[in-house]
Design a protein that fits this description.
With 341 residues, the protein is of the alpha/beta class. The protein is built from eleven helices and 17 strands. The protein has two domains: 178 residues, Medium-chain alcohol dehydrogenases, catalytic domain (Quinone Oxidoreductase, Chain A, domain 1, Alpha-Beta Complex), CATH 3.90.180.10; 132 residues, NAD(P)-binding Rossmann-like Domain (Rossmann fold).
């Protein structure tokens, strides 16, 4: 079957390519409908990745956050027209210890393989999860990002000690918002404090118990555990602030991506006996967990509607470029693509 693929061939340059996709009795054919732009997509689009990475990976279709409708399912798992969320991570092996999203052999859409900027996506059925009814498609589009926060919290519950009276979240962007929101629902007895750099953004964290500017942290603030959701050049400052205010034997979850090495106050890491762990991407159990959380806590997708920013209908190539350029100028929220190419 001939498929139309929208690929980034160089920074800020998209092209249309045609690729044959084989169909067999293990395939589900999905038509993408609503997609969401991620910071990782922007790093490729703007050419912010190292040049050797760009040379190796481009041309490539971007986008790893999205939902679609089943066109046909040769396995009989889904019905035609059924809305599904697409899991971008595709493992090619199983490991009894290492999760699918950490296996070096796994292929990830929009990174090691073409993403969802395609007319059709052909996948095996376990890379799809049926969406619940009444979930707004603009929110469902960035389920993958929510699953990353869920994955980090799930691992945190495995790694951390049981005293969770207070938990800090550093970062007032999309990832910080989602992580704090999920913590509110999953750990209702914990006090959630959010630290950010923008007062207007912090005002949206109405579900948090406390919010602070990162240059106005009071001396009496201490947390049992913390999540770093800053990334970029602000990551070192954020992590070292966490090290300063976290109580002994606390756990620090690192979620923010930075291209630079981050110097850490290892002396205090040692003196306090801290545990730092990183989380990246997610797997099928995390998607299932997120959608179950939506059913149990309908206020979560309602709060997530606040993150829906630009909604761009894409019918031709220049619409894709316009969406990415608009996303650069958006200071908070997600740029959503209504995919009609």
């Amino acid at each position: 079957m001939l498929n139309t693929v929208c690929r980034l061939k160089a920074p800020r340059q998209f092209e249309i390519a045609f690729r044959h996709i084989p169909l067999d009795d293990q395939t589900v054919l999905v038509r993408p409908t609503w997609l969401s732009i991620c910071r990782a997509d922007q790093r490729y689009y703007q050419g912010l990745r190292p040049q050797e990475v760009l040379r190796r990976k481009l041309p490539m279709a971007l986008i790893h956050e999205g939902i679609g409708e089943v066109v046909c399912d040769f396995t009989g798992t889904f019905c035609p027209g059924q809305p599904v969320v697409m899991i971008p991570n595709t493992p090619v092996e199983e490991d009894p210890v290492v999760a699918e999203n950490y296996l070096r052999t796994s292929r990830f859409a929009g990174s090691g393989a073409d993403g969802f900027l395609q007319e059709y996506v052909a996948v095996v059925p376990d890379r799809l999860v049926a969406l619940p009814e009444n979930l707004h498609p603009e929110v469902a589009a960035f389920t993958e990002l929510v699953s990353v926060s869920y994955h980090a919290i799930r691992r945190f519950l495995e790694f951390s000690h049981s005293r969770r009276n207070s938990i800090g979240v550093w970062g007032d962007g999309n990832l910080g918002y989602i992580t704090a929101l999920l913590l509110r629902a999953m750990l209702p007895d914990s006090r959630i404090a959010v630290v950010g750099k923008n007062r207007a953004k912090l005002a949206d964290f109405t579900f948090a118990d406390e919010t602070y500017l990162n240059d106005e942290i009071p001396p009496e603030l201490f947390v049992d555990h913390a999540f770093e959701c800053v990334g970029g050049m602000g990551a070192p400052i954020a992590v070292n602030q966490v090290i300063d205010v976290i109580r002994p034997e606390g756990t620090i979850s690192l979620l923010g991506v930075t291209e630079e090495l981050a110097p850490l106050n290892t002396r205090m890491v040692l003196e306090k006996g801290l545990r730092l762990f990183g989380s990246s991407r997610s797997g099928r159990p995390d998607f299932l967990g997120v959608l179950d959380l939506y059913r149990q806590h309908p206020e979560i997708p309602a709060y997530l509607e606040n993150l829906v920013g630009n909604v761009v209908t894409v019918r031709e190539l220049r619409d894709v470029t316009n969406a990415f350029e608009a996303d650069i100028r958006q200071w908070l929220g997600k740029t959503i693509l209504k995919w009609e190419m």
